[in-house]
Amino acid sequence: MFGDVKYVCMGGTPQRMKSFAEYMLGQLGYLLPTGTCLLDISARSHRYAMYKVGPVLSISHGMGIPSAGILLHEVIKLMYHAGVKDPIFFRIGTCGGIGLPPGTVVVTEEAVDGRVRPYLDTIILGKVVSRKSKLDLGLAKNLVATGLENDQFQTVLGKTISTDDFYEGQGRLDGAICEYKESDKMAYLQEVASKGVTNMEMEALVFAALTHLAGIRSAVVCVTLLDRLKGDQVTTPKEELTAWQTRPMETVGRFIMSELSVAEKDASMPAIRKLARVSSNLFSQSQSCFEDA
């Protein structure tokens, strides 16, 4: 079932990864019978959502380093036991920008912790183990290069801070507990910006560290929802935010489509589509199920 997977795409929420699977369904030109939906393969686990669209696996990893780390262990094992050779892993998501306009797509060149160290610290058997968080820089540059002149957004390379907490870990002032001043927050954000940090989220560090340790090429692509130098609250209307969240999907989708050959697309084509091509026009027009994002 998973032996033909070439690309593993992860993101925080089940709905986002369902939307990405639907997007790739259209990009690959696959049709489903009218009235049917993509199947959440892991629905009965009640933990993650998983969709397979030809050579693309689309999975939700939940929120934060612990949740994403658990999924990475399980998916890396899945790829090994399925006999998949050289898969490419992507994380697509949202983030807070630092000195970038909202709606900008950031492709991470280096994932760092809150001290701007490119290491993931994990306590293993009572000892702190530091693991290098390294992404494929060539892959990152190729993703930036997929940007088109008529895009309504910028696509840039930058360093990404991953934190263990959404509020204090990211220097927000609007959490239940805050023991620092706005001047402290601004000094920190300006300091990390001077070191090349362009955005802040909660999963890139573990994603980079575990894929690097497993010898898997990987990249992180996120869209900024706000500029943290200008505030902590997202004020953009929901409709616009929803549109922005498709931008990392488009970036990764363009890269995948530029790499896949016609033969590879056909080899992973769903059996029902192959049948329709040969002997039936019943499925020539198809509809998939979408949920409100």
Radius of gyration (Å): 20 Å
Structural class: alpha/beta
Residue stretches low in confidence (pLDDT < 50, at least 5 long) are 274-293
Bulk shape: globular
Share of helix among residues?
25-40%
By oligomeric state, this entry counts as single chain
Q: How many helices in DSSP terms?
A: 9
Extended strand count? 10
On the 0 to 100 scale, the average pLDDT is 89
Q: Largest sheet at a glance?
A: 5 strands, mixed, barrel
The neighbouring-strand order within the major sheet is 4-9-8-5-10
Written as H for each helix and E for each strand, in order along the chain, the element string is: EHEEHEEEEHEHEHEHHHH
Strand content: 15-25%
Tell me the distance between the termini: 28 Å
Written overview of the protein:
With 293 residues, the chain is of the alpha/beta class. The protein has 9 helices and 10 strands. The chain has helices at 14-28, 65-81, 137-144, 182-194, 204-213, 238-244, 246-259, 262-267, 271-279; strands at residues 7-11, 50-53, 56-60, 88-97, 105-112, 119-124, 127-132, 155-162, 197-201, 217-227. It has a 5-stranded mixed beta barrel, surrounded by 4 helices. Strands 6-7 form a two-stranded antiparallel sheet. Helix 1 (14-28) runs parallel beside helix 7.
Provide a short characterization of the protein structure.
The chain is α/β, with parallel strands linked by helices and 293 residues long.
Features:
alpha/beta, five-stranded mixed barrel, 293 residues, single chain, 9 helices, two-stranded antiparallel sheet, disordered C terminus
